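Q: Sequence in, structure out?
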Amino acid sequence: MNHQPALPPVPIWKLIAVACAGGFVGSAARAGMELGCSTVGLPGWTARVVVNVLGACAIGVLFARLCDVDGRGIPIGFSHKNRLREQLWGAGFLGGFTTVSGFAWDVASALQDQAFERAAVLFTADALVGIAAAALGYSITMARRQLRERKGAA
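A: Exactly. Output:
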C-alpha cells in the first residue's frame, strides 16, 4: 500500500520547457566537443563517437537513478516525481548531446567514400560500444543504488 500523497500531474508545458532547455545545453555541449576535436585536428566523427558513447553511459546511469523498481529490484518505469528530471536530463540534455543522425550520417558518408574500415569502426564504436557503455552505466549505478537501499533498511 502506498502512503505517499498523490502529486498533481506536471503540466505539459513544463515538460516541454525543461526538455527544450536541456536539449539546448546538450546540443551546445556536443558542438563544443566537435569544435574542440577540430581544433586539435581530429575529424568531426571522432567527437560524435565520443559524445555518443559518453551519452550512452550517462543514459544508463540516469535510468538506474530515476527508475522505480519492484520488490525484486526489477525496473518498472518512472514515477511521476521524476518526470521533470527525466525530460530535462534524458530527453533534453542527453537527447541533444548524443546524435543518432550524426552517427548515421558518418557511417553513410564512410560507405559512400568506400572507407569500409572507418564505417566498421564507426558502427562498432557507436552501436556496440555505446550499448555496452549504457549497460555498464546502468549496472554500476543500480548496484550502488541497491547497496545504499540495503544500508538504509538495516
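The two ends are 21 Å apart (CA to CA).
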